[in-house]
Amino acid sequence: MDILRIVLTIIYVIDCIAITVVVLMQEGKSAGLGAIAGAADTYWGHNKGRSMEGGLLKATRVLVVIFFVLSIVLSMNFLTK
Question: What angle, rounded to 10 degrees, do the helices at 2-25 and 52-75 form?
């Protein structure tokens, strides 16, 4: 069980670093002056799920789910025996 705990801890640390990188790569949610001129209604505004920003959002969600699952698993007592 010690090897499993070490492997899960390494995956957990890699996941934490990946979450940090992906969140820092995302753009801010403030629209700025572009929203006044209607720039939010452009092609990229409507197809955000297919753009890089949409991919980063999906990656963030997946990494956070992995983070929570690993947090729960690593905190269980059956791995400490």
Answer: 150
